[in-house]
Amino acid sequence: MQPLKTPRQLVQEATVAANLAGDEWMEKAKPKYVPVNAISGYRYPPMLDLCGNAHVRFTDRRTKNYKDFVKAELVRASGNGVVEINHKYQFRQEHGLLLACAKAALAVMEANGISNLRIWDWID
Questions:
Q1: How far apart are CA 68 and CA 61, in angstroms?
Q2: Among candidates 36, 52, 54, which has minimal Cα distance to 44?
Q3: What is the model's pLDDT at position 76?
Q4: Which residues pair with 114 in a beta bridge?
Q5: HSE-up (13 A, CA, CB side) for residue 58
Q6: DSSP letter for each residue of the chain
Q7: Cα distance between residue 22 and residue 90, in whole Å
Q8: Beta bridge pairs of residue 51
Q9: pLDDT in tens, 31-82
Q10: Spacing of C-alpha 31 from chain mean position
Q11: Are 48 and 97 in contact (CB under 8 A)?
C-alpha cells in the first residue's frame, strides 16, 4: 500500500507527533540518577533517564518507499536507513525521551502506509 502523502508531508507530521510525545514525556520526567565523580566526589546535575538514543529506520532499503525518502533527502542514501525526523528533543541524551519521540513518529508513518520501518534504539 503506497502512502497518499509525500515523504516530506509524512516527516512533517511525524515531527509534530514526536514533539508532542517529547513534551508529554518531559512533563512527567523526574530526576532518576545523580552521577558522582568517584575521585573528587563532585555531584553532576541529575539525569532524567539513562543516556541513549532512538531513531526510526527502514528495514528494507530496496523498497520504493525507501527510495522515495532518499530522493526527498529525508534519508541519507549512504547512511543506515534512518529517517531524518528533526524534532526539538533530538539533541538530548535521555533514552526514554528519544524512544517516546521515535515511537510517535513511527506510529504516524505506519498509519500512512509505510510498513517497512522499525525503531532502532540503544542505551549508552
A1: 11
A2: 36
A3: 76
A4: none
A5: 22
A6: ---SS-HHHHHHHHHHHHHHHHHHHHHH----B--B-TTT-PBPPPBSS-BEEEEEEES-TTSHHHHHHHHTTSB-TTTTSBB----TTTT--BHHHHHHHHHHHHHHHHHTT--SEEEEEEE-
A7: 10
A8: 94
A9: 999 989 999 999 998 899 999 999 999 999 999 999 999 999 999 766 789 9
A10: 21
A11: yes
Query: And the C-alpha cell for 107?
Result: 506510529
Grid coordinates belonging to 119: 525503531
Rounded CA separation 113/68 (Å): 13
Question: What per-residue confidence (pLDDT) applies to 102?
Answer: 98
C-alpha separations of 97 from 22, 50, 70, 117 in Å: 6, 10, 26, 19
Q: Which amino acid is at 110?
A: E
What are the cell numbers at 19?
514533539
- Take residue 93 and report the three cell numbers written for it: 541524551
Sequence spans of domains, the chain: 7-123
pLDDT digits (tens, 9 = 90+) for 91-103: 999 999 999 999 9
**pTM for this entry:** 0.90
From residue 88, alpha-carbon distances to 23, 58, 91, 114 in Å are: 9, 22, 8, 23
